[in-house]
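Worked example (supplementary).
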Amino acid sequence: MSVDIAQFHQTFFEESFEGLDAMESALLGLDVGAADTETINGIFRAAHSIKGGSATFGFSAVANFTHRVETLLDQMREGSRPVTQDGLEILLQSVDVLRAMLEAVRGDGALPDAMAAEVQGRLETMLATDEGGTVESEGDPQAAPGDGWRIVFRPHQHMLQTGNDPIRIFRELAELGELNVRADTSKLPSLTALDPETCHLAWTLELRGEASEGDVREVFDWVEGDCDLAIEPLGRVEGGGGAVPVAAQAAPADKLPVQARPSAGEGGSIRVDIAKVDAIINLVGELVITQSMLGQVGESMEDSPHLDVQRFEKLRDGLAQLERNTRELQESVMQIRMLPISFAFNRFPRIVRDLSQQLGKKIELKMFGEQTELDKTVMEKIGDPLVHLVRNALDHGIEAPDDRLEVGKPETGVVELEAYHKGGNIIIEIRDDGRGLDRDKLLAKARSRGLVPDGQLPSDADIYDYVFHPGFSTADKVSDVSGRGVGMDVVRRNIKALGGNVEIHTEKGRGTTFTVRLPLTLSILDGQLVRVGDQSYVIPLVSIVESLQIRQRQVSAIAGKAEMYKLRDDYIPIVRLNEVFGDGSPYSTLEGGLMVVAEGDGNRAGFMVDDLLGQQQVVIKSLETNFRRVEGLSGATILGDGTVALILDVAGLIQRFRHGDPSSHASSGPRADQHNAAA
Amino acid sequence: MATILAVDDSASMRQMVAFTLKGAGHEVLEAGDGEEAYGIAQRKSVNLVITDVNMPKMDGIALTRKLRTLPGYKFTPILTLTTESTAEKKQAGKAAGATGWIVKPFNPEQLLATVNKVLG
Amino acid sequence: MTTAQSIDADHLNLAGAGEDQYLTFILRGEEYGVDILRVQEIRGWDNVTPIPNTPSYIKGVMNLRGTIVPIVDLRERFAMEVMPYGPTTVVIVLKVRSDDRERVMGIVVDAVSDVYNIGADDLKPPPDFGEVVSVEYVQGLATVDEKMVIVLDIDHLLTSGELRGVDRSAA
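After joint prediction of all chains, the assembly is encoded as:
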């Protein structure tokens, strides 16, 4: 039976990445002076597991590299090598190399050959400066096979207690050739004195065949030392023999069938707290009870199909219960995808440590609220933006130690990460006690870029918001740590793509706080239902700025086509949704019409709708699963009456509007109308 | 056919071993460390124990020693999984009373062959 | 609201070796067939939400027990004259394979006909139909009870061009 071990790769990768994370935290926590043995043991075991697994699953490059790491750790845990700062450095770098290697092997990226070679070189140098244990290679008795072998096998008394059975040994020998066994019972004590758990027998065996001495010895491998073994050739010894394979090992595959795998973000598995699963099981149990209660009401109506007060009340109660069950079940199931944010926060001690060293600054990292939970996918996607914000704080926020002392601050700067729940969202704050933003400098820069016309004085909040503008960096020196400031606008965009937002509060000389707000989940959205023609659409509440009734005199048109609305001091384009979607009849006039002002990607537009139908939470269903992505739509949802409502992609619609003539898409014409039997 | 106890702190190794042996018709019990394994061995009768050496709580060597103190496990084959092919690791296992060892890395076919050999 | 129609029991003989079972339906008097293993269910016509910027033969999407399923009107797809939808209109929900994945899509037909066992040998290659039905979508022709059944390749039919991901049409 051949077993495809590729199916275990996924688990191996997950387990190995976790192991690497554990190694890293433990290494960061190690005190060079008083290294805790148990901690070192833990680090060793993690490396050992990765080595064993990678060798088993055929990832030989990883196994080879890890072997050296393991050797170093082994020496440290045995005490034959002291734990030094250099040693820790090399080990931390090895963790980086292994991470990159495993990712490459999994399919995300190229093997980090240069980095690996460099770190490996340093590992070897370190290992060479101390005589570590040398690996003995197995002796390879190349005795030339002759006619066969005579084997005298005398087990020691205790041999049976190792679980080894001579019968099995003989069976194995018999596979090598023709076996003749003769027992020697001379040492057997009398029956009354016999202890059946000890071995008093010995055997002389003759094995005829082509097997080599090595092959024969191998059969006795496990009992070596628990027996007396003498092997002599039978008959003449001939010259020239074949090579003896000591232990048949499958050659580890050097080339792996690497498929393009989605990054760790999509797919994969999730560890769920058993308590959560139990909670769901209980809720489903309650649901079943409610269902059977409603079923009873239904059955009782079959006999007498009228709804008397009693039955009506039962029905109503049942339905209320159903509503409660469903809501609780929904909440409970959402909980499964929730993981503590510590998974995202865990990388920061290392980043802060490395960066502060690199920058020559003294920085202390404090983290709070690591147990705050958020959706797994949201967490994976918020990782990079958070890293950028933290790097920014370290690079631009916290001053150099001398500068801090000069202004009376402690030498060591403090960066705080805090996460907490608030009103259906998760809030992540990144606080530093550094130099804060210089409002005047920012304003000057904004003016020089033409973002703020002369004479206008934006509010402080607006000024600080410019930090998120593309290409905006007031850093005097461009350090390669956080880049040219091109990052901040990307950070905000990514956070918005998750349905969240990021704000900045700062005080010059005192510090800066970035506040990231994220929805707890990606698949449910708070939406405003609107009607356009016959159809209902959903506009994400988070995109809506305001809704108003149009006053015709605020409307103007450019080149007779693009309509604009004067909203206070701004002109925003008017999007006639009925024309975009080909629903409903054209408006005779816009006066008094309903317009929903919405914002996407920093741009605003006013969307004409026929009616506002109320706000509700909707579950986002994908259009792409069975159909395809449709421009202007970010998905669909199923309303309470079972019909499908389309969810508008505000940013996408605005984009499309700016680039093309919206009315050209109305050529599809009314469709469902054709099939209504009425004229 | 036989009841085998597989002990390894690495879930992927356990999965592979369990999958391979179950495919050959054996019943496989799993444990993540020596302590857990010892508990299982006390409650259920096991025909073969395959254990990794480096594990938290109780390692494979200690597990072997403890198992041998159980009357039902005096002669039960115990195999250790080791990546080191140096003599001392194997000897540590044997000194504790192990029957033999399997060197990592091994492939499923090798595992089956060794298991068959030991179960007779 | 909707009822799943059951398949005529008489013809539910197990297919023999080399034979496959096909569900047939009527479209403008002609009988067409699809591999029964691809048929997920059969429903009556229900509310469909039109999707903007799609060809007119894609009527829109329907809620199928929580999944969003696109619905294609085959008459329109084949450029035949359209018929009003009524209580006898039928939607056949199919499992369609495209690229590397499977999608669920529905087709609107005049009526469901029957289930037949058709052997691979009985499937004759189609002659050129001209503009009516492109030959790409026809797997072959079979004769059952002296009637001609046009066996369709639904993967090709339902996933060509317009139904695939289309790049942003923005200028």
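Two points are worth noting when inspecting this output. The mean pLDDT of chain C is 79. Chain C has two helices and ten strands.
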